[in-house]
Write a structure and sequence with these properties.
This protein is α/β, with parallel strands linked by helices. About 45% of the residues lie in helices and about 15% in strands. It is built from 21 helices and 12 strands. The protein has helices at about 5-20, 30, 35-40, 65-75, 90-105, 120-125, 135-140, 145-150, 175-180, 185-200, 215-225, 245-260, 270-280, 295, 340-350, 355-365, 370-375, 375-380, 385-390, 405-420, 425-440; strands at about 50-55, 80-85, 110-115, 150-155, 155, 160-170, 205-210, 285-290, 310, 325-335, 365-370, 395. Strand 4 and strand 5 (about 155) form a beta hairpin. About 50% of the residues are buried.
């Protein structure tokens, strides 16, 4: 770790401890009416304005749920005005812009939405306030373990959960019924069903997923490795654990799926939209994709609307339990240079709390991050199956626990793509991925 970064992080950790030390003089339950909420930080009693860097989050009636959340927060803290600062639609531009602004010491935005893949990178580079000393340990117990790990670096959380995303397996229920095929529970059954439907001439493609040379393939591989009982990196993010039987089974599945025609040759170029288009166009039997795709396949004008089912992803035959899904979603970071960090922490924590999370359940198509909201009667009874099934998915984090995640991800998806493009064997790609990820962890250029 560069010395300057280490010193910056130590200063931030000290700042977080200092903020926590002021709790005894905070306003407590008096300002917000919720001592458990307000005890997290020294919430100001005077008028305060916060800038929240975020993007529009549509509600079912066409509104913006951010406005609903701010109104709910102001019922507790009428003295804290939350100003919405519109973030760019492009994630990479958002990350670059925020990194530049926060690294320069800018006090605004006070808090900002970021991808769940960012915490280790932002923590390492002193771009986010450390939260461990500001919140009781019980707070983090309310969220899935995979999410808490994704938001932490060196056992210190650096972001508040906000909303999650996760992957599912979509399938053509009408085609399975037509051929007397049960909904598959293993990847081997997926392969057999896909082959049967294709041979009958009812679909051009069996299974489509995201196999291009980009981060989406990292998510797919991380899931398959978890299905086989393995991991990509150790919990600290400092050592490669991909390999052995789990790695061989995951990479071997990709190799066999290509060789047997279960996945099309074009899958090596597919991203989310490509795979979704193939499925909604009626060309594929199965689709691995994110929760939002339900709204696409059942949306107005979709040729397959009313003929699609969705389920948690299956596992491998004879392996551990299925139902894994890669973790996605967004969180809220607090700017370490914010003028009113107590107010920023209070709002970010509110967005992670039960009231806000149930607003997300009731008013939007986003998936809540809070475990209680994910398992609530309202969620489980939802007419949107991706929400109703959310609590059944075993979340799998990408190997984001390393601050060198972009390089680690590139090493993994580049090698996995060579399998899907037919350029190398599963064994050689697995060995190459291990070697390249180890080099990335050492800080070497790929």
């Amino acid at each position: 770790m560069p010395r300057t970064t280490s010193l910056s992080r130590r200063r931030l950790l000290a700042a977080g401890t200092g903020l926590a030390a002021g709790l005894a003089t905070g306003c407590g339950a008096g300002a917000g009416g919720d001592p458990d909420l307000d005890a997290a930080a020294e919430v100001p009693t005077g008028d305060v304005t916060l800038d929240w860097w975020s993007f529009r989050m549509a509600t079912a009636d066409g509104g913006d749920v951010r406005e609903t959340l701010v109104r709910a927060f102001n019922r507790r803290h009428p003295n804290i005005r939350v100003n919405l600062v519109e973030a760019p639609a492009n994630t990479d531009i958002t990350r670059t812009t925020l990194s530049t602004a926060v690294a320069s010491g800018a006090p605004s935005p006070d808090l900002y939405m970021g991808d769940v893949a960012w915490p280790a990178q932002f923590a390492y580079n002193a771009l986010a306030l450390p939260l461990g000393s500001l919140l009781p340990g019980a707070f983090w117990e309310g969220f899935p373990d995979a999410l808490v790990r994704a938001l932490s670096f060196e056992d210190e959380p650096y972001a508040f959960p906000f909303y999650s995303d996760q992957s599912y397996l979509y399938y053509r229920a009408d085609l399975l019924d037509k051929h007397g095929l049960a909904v598959p529970r293993t990847w081997e059954e997926v392969a057999r069903a896909a082959t049967a439907v294709r041979r009958a001439g009812d679909a051009d493609m069996g299974l489509v997923l995201q196999g291009a040379v980009y981060e989406g393939l990292t998510a797919n591989v991380a899931e398959l490795v978890a299905d086989a009982g393995g991991t990509v990196l150790d919990p600290t993010g400092g050592r490669v654990t991909l390999g052995g039987a789990a790695g061989e089974r995951a990479f071997g599945f990709l190799q066999d799926a290509l060789a047997d025609g279960v996945v099309p040759a074009a899958v090596a170029t597919f991203k989310e939209q490509d795979s979704t288009d193939a499925f909604t166009g009626g060309r594929a039997v199965f689709l691995r994709n994110w929760a939002y795709v339900w709204g696409v396949v059942e949306g107005a004008g979709s040729p397959v609307a009313g003929r699609v089912g969705v389920m948690p992803r299956p596992g491998f035959d004879g392996g551990g339990p299925g139902g894994h899904g890669c973790l996605g979603g967004w969180c809220n970071f607090v700017n370490p240079h914010a003028a009113q960090p107590g107010a920023a922490v209070a709002f970010a924590r509110f967005c992670a709390g039960e009231e806000a999370q149930m607003i997300i359940v009731r008013d939007t198509a986003y998936l809540p991050a809070l475990s209680a909201a994910r398992a609530s009667d309202e969620a489980r009874g939802s007419r949107t199956p991706t929400l109703a099934l959310a609590g059944e998915v075993r979340l799998v984090a990408r190997p984001t626990q390393s601050p060198r995640y972009p390089q680690v991800s590139k090493a993994l998806y580049t090698q996995a793509n060579t399998v899907l493009s037919g350029g190398t064997s599963a064994a050689d790609a697995l060995a190459g991925a291990r070697a390249d990820m180890a080099a990335a962890l050492r800080g070497e250029s790929l």
